Amino acid sequence: MASKLQQLQSKACQATQFLSKHGTTYYKQMLEQNKQFIQEPPTVEKCNELSKQLFYTRLASVPGRYESFWKEVDYVKHLWKNRQELKVEDAGIAALFGMECFAWYCAGEIVGRGFTFTGYYV
C-alpha cells in the first residue's frame, strides 16, 4: 500500500513539473487560437453584459422549443394511433431510446450518491 502511495506521489510530482514547464505555453497558445471569442476590454461589466445576453437569448428561445416539443408529442400520438403499421425498426429505435433514458437515469442516481453503488445488487 505504501508503494502505491509513493507511486501516486511520484506521478503527481511529474505532472506538476510538466505543468510548470509547459502550462504557460499551452495557455498562451489556447488564447491565441481562440482570440476571436475574447471580448475587449475584459472587465466585470463586460462579463455581466454577456451573461445577461446569454440568459435573455436563451429565454427568447423558449417559445420555439415549446413549439418543437409539442410537435414531437403530436408525432408520438400519431405513431401510437397507427401502431398497427409500426415497423420493427421503429419499435427497436424506441426501445433503444427508452433504455438510454433509463441508463442516464441510473448514471445520474449513481453520481448523485457520490459514485457509490449501494442498494443495487449486481
UniProtKB/TrEMBL annotation:
GO MF: proton transmembrane transporter activity
Organism: Escallonia herrerae
Entry GO CC: mitochondrial membrane; proton-transporting ATP synthase complex
Localization per record: Mitochondrion membrane
Keywords noted in UniProt: ATP synthesis, CF(0), Hydrogen ion transport, Ion transport, Membrane, Mitochondrion, Transport
Family to which this protein belongs: Belongs to the ATPase g subunit family.
Origin organism lineage: Eukaryota, Viridiplantae, Streptophyta, Embryophyta, Tracheophyta
Highest rank taxon of the organism: Eukaryota
Pfam families hit by this protein: ATP-synt_G
Main location: mitochondrion
Entry protein name: Mitochondrial ATP synthase subunit G protein
GO biological process: proton motive force-driven ATP synthesis
Keyword Glycoprotein: no
Protein's UniProt keywords contain Membrane: yes
